[in-house]
Design brief:
- The chain starts with 14 loop residues before the first strand and ends with a helix.
- The strands form six sheets. The protein has a six-stranded antiparallel beta sheet with strand order 2-1-5-6-4-3, sandwiched between helices.
- It is α/β, with parallel strands linked by helices.
- Helix content is 39%, strand content 13%.
- Helix 5 packs across helix 6 and helix 10 runs antiparallel to helix 11.
Length: 594
């Protein structure tokens, strides 16, 4: 890239510009290792993984090594992910620094310098003929380390955390390429004129590991629960604002725009985010903390990493959960490693393009496509982001978090008016869930037509908790697709004061949502009988096996209850005001009930 204001390095030397540092010159021995010609304009490539050239160099004086990547894809996001991970868990990512090289002709090279984590990458180790030692080391990494990596993996939603981007060294895993972070965990793509398909974007080898079925480490959980999510995110956003200012010290606007237009390896220098990422991160952060806190107090039965994964990212968790069901490990065999590799192979087969020459997995998502999620379409939009003038900038991120109270009042107001288009554009189910659960359906300003529009707009959301109290237009038919979509992930539902709901919906909850833990269904005048006995006998269905609380109070026409719920105690059944209740059986023997 030729800069308009040409600055040249001395003959055969490389000038280095680093934010907040005086200009430097690379040592000749380092230059010789990085460039493969006398013109100092062709990078060596000592690493066979990835699409960008990477060279490992060694300082002969102290034998320290460092990796330089030419034309890094999203160096601003790389640094943002690094700073975020260190603030949240203090480990798990490699440190890096963006710099600019200038050669003797004035040509510039954006270069990301990263600390070298000694050892081969995980892909190389797993591909060797004798990989049992590696798999044994993976299985024995410290549990507190795994839990921290898991928590940061949930928050970063990395699109490309495959084995060749991990280094395993003495029981420590480090992610060395973090520039494809903060993705939606699932993308929706058109698969036909009238149909869509869900595409996994949260791709992390960590989630294929056997430790996903182990309990979270208590020490790591305690550390995470002490974090103030809003304050942490606010301070992080302020740091990123300064980072963009730092990058403006060494790259001109012309250089940044020209780098973005690179035909083969485009570079997006500034930090930018998807719209609503601030709300999404805060929502997810607080959701994880809520579940961890309830689990610690034993208010809910959440013990494993996979349990938390299901509650926070249910759609992505289903992809990995299905693989754990398909490829189960022998719990009595500590040397059983095959199924972990099979899970990983299936993720790569279904979600990556495999390079025929090297056998490595390559992402099918292009740089420009990712840039569009940050509202970067052309040079002008890139300039606006760099100057902090758009909603995807760190400035807007910080401004959102500086609000005294973060709520969804604007979105809720539109829903009450029957305007669901903006709501439908939100890509994160956690945000949608929060909006619906904060919507007061008892508000007289919500018309019947608006209620029906809202209820129809949520049948593609995977809920873990759902509050539809006072939704007077809710019917069995409207609730059914909501239950089928949420399925095994729904843990809590409130359908009190929904006058049109009948016993059919209670039975549907048990049928489609077999992990339901809490049902609040009070003041339902059309409920007469609740029974799932026949389904258990004829179809061996395990209905309500996880139910721990049910409120049927003031269902004035309820006459009979046949209920089998092994985890439900008599004290956790609310039947106040059920004045016509004549027969009540629960947790009795099937033969007697039948």
């Amino acid at each position: 890239i030729e800069s308009k204001k040409v600055i040249k390095a001395p003959e055969d030397r490389i000038l280095v510009l680093i934010p907040n540092q005086p200009p430097l010159l690379l040592k000749n021995e380092i230059v010789e290792q990085i460039f493969n010609n006398n013109n100092r304009d062709e990078f060596n490539d000592t690493e066979r993984f990835g699409t960008r050239k990477v060279v490992k160099v060694t300082n002969n004086e102290n034998q320290q090594t460092i990796h330089f990547k030419l034309n890094p894809e999203f160096p601003g996001i790389e640094k943002a992910a690094e700073r975020f991970a260190l603030r949240v868990v203090g480990e798990g990512v490699a440190r890096s620094q963006l710099m600019k090289f200038i050669n003797q002709k004035g040509r510039i090279f954006p270069v990301l310098a990263s600390e070298t984590i000694e050892n081969e990458n995980l892909q190389s180790k797993l591909s060797s003929n004798n990989n049992n030692d590696t798999l044994r080391e993976l299985k024995n990494i410290h549990q507190d380390h795994f839990t921290r990596l898991f928590l940061i993996g949930l928050l970063l939603t990395t699109e490309d955390a495959k084995p060749d981007n991990y280094i395993l060294n003495q029981g420590i895993l480090t992610l060395i390429d973090n520039d494809r972070c903060f993705f939606p965990s699932i993308a929706i793509e058109k698969s036909g004129i009238f149909s869509n398909k869900q595409v996994l974007q949260l791709k992390n080898y960590l989630f294929c590991m056997d430790q996903m079925n182990l309990p979270l480490n208590e020490e790591a959980v305690e550390e995470f629960l002490k974090l103030d999510a809003k304050l942490l995110l606010r301070n992080w956003a302020r740091e990123l604002k300064e980072l963009n200012k730092d990058y403006r010290q060494i790259f001109s606007e012309d250089e940044i725009e020209n780098l973005f237009d690179h035909k083969i390896n485009p570079v997006v220098i500034p930090v930018g985010f998807r719209i609503d990422l601030a709300k999404e991160l805060l929502c997810k952060f607080e959701l994880i903390q809520e579940f961890l806190l309830k689990s610690r107090k034993q208010l809910i039965k959440v013990y494993t990493h996979l349990d938390i994964f299901v509650r926070v990212e249910p759609k992505a968790a289903k992809v990995y959960g299905d693989l754990f069901k398909q490829f189960k490990n022998d719990s009595n065999n500590n040397e059983d490693f095959d199924n972990q590799l099979k899970r990983r192979k299936m993720i790569e087969k279904n979600n990556y393009q495999i390079d025929n020459e090297t056998g490595t997995a390559q992402s099918q998502i292009t740089t420009k496509l990712i840039a569009k999620t940050m509202q970067i379409y052309d040079k002008q939009s890139l300039r606006d982001l760099f100057q902090g003038r758009v909603s995807t900038s760190p400035e807007s991120f910080a401004d959102f978090l500086l609000q005294r109270q973060i709520d969804n009042s604007e979105e809720i107001l539109k829903l009450k008016q029957g305007k669901v288009n903006d709501f439908n554009q939100i890509t994160n189910d956690n945000i949608k869930q929060a909006i619906i659960n904060q919507t007061q359906f008892s508000d007289p300003k919500i018309t019947k037509e608006s209620q029906i529009k809202i209820l129809k707009s949520i049948n593609n959301i995977t809920f873990t908790q759902l509050d539809l109290k006072n939704a007077s237009e809710l019917t069995n038919e409207l609730l059914l697709p909501i239950l089928t979509t949420s399925g095994q992930y729904l843990r809590k539902i409130n359908i009190s004061y929904c006058d049109k709901i009948t016993s059919v919906s209670i039975e549907n909850i048990g049928h489609y949502c077999n992990n339901i833990e809490e049902i609040i269904a009070s003041h339902l005048p059309k409920i007469v009988k609740i029974s799932q006995i026949w389904k258990r006998i004829l179809f061996s269905e395990k209905l309500f096996d996880n139910l721990q609380f049910i409120d049927l109070s003031n269902c004035v026409n309820l006459e009979q209850i046949y209920l089998i719920a092994p985890k439900l105690t008599y004290q956790q059944i609310k039947l106040d005001g059920c004045e016509n209740l004549k027969l009540f059986r629960y947790n009795s023997k099937l033969a007697e009930d039948y």
